[in-house]
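Usage

Read records sequentially. Each one opens with the input sequence:
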Amino acid sequence: MQLDERRIAMLREMGLRLLPPVSVAEATGRETEAAVEMRVATLPDTRAPQALAPAASPVAAPRVLGDRPAGIESLDWEDLAQAVAGCRACGLCESRRNTVFGVGPARADWMVIGEAPGENEDLQGEPFVGQAGKLLDNMLRAAGLDRRRNVYIANVLKCRPPGNRNPEPQEVAQCEPFLRRQVALVQPRVILAMGRFAIQTLLQSQEPVGRLRGRVHRYEGVPVVVTYHPAYLLRNLQDKAKAWADLCLAMDLMEGVDA
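and closes with the structure output:
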């Protein structure tokens, strides 16, 4: 992969650096893709990641408290936001402080989709804030993107699961029509799906993230590139290089390069 100035900047924003190239002798006369990947090293991350939430105790099946708003597929932005804010289709409405609708322009070529709100998102009503949000913003900045200007960011779930537990299938099923309508309104040219539950929801696949990376998938006809969630990357610094490669794949799609 050609490392132009923009992609070198992306490496720096993500806390990565390039080591000196190996010699011909070291490469045994032929450089392979694996050799290139091995030369990408991760710099120490001086930021203190957020403390991991304690393991959640077993929870009962989520309760359905009311009907999901009707006619979601035809709502405009204002009515869709109001429908999300007033939704009581599952038990998550009882513990939320705020619904987390999304952020960004009404139309955007890029769309980032995450999993579920955490504590900071629940408090502020905006997706991807806190340390994971800062890392995402750095990644987007390296690609020339900004959450207020040219990329729309949303989560699969619009309410925080208590204790940051994993989303329940019924909760995802209740929220997915809201997300589908957001995609239809944004009309993105590429979707970057971040994290296991976002990927499973969009692709309807139980395969692990590692097996789905490096390929172009589709959701509602829109190309989808999958990658790791920023919160995961804060705990697994060695996988930042893989996330960088995923961003490059999405950029290639935007630039019309065959994947």
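Summary fields computed downstream for this record:
- The longest strand covers residues 222-227.
- The two ends are 12 Å apart (CA to CA).
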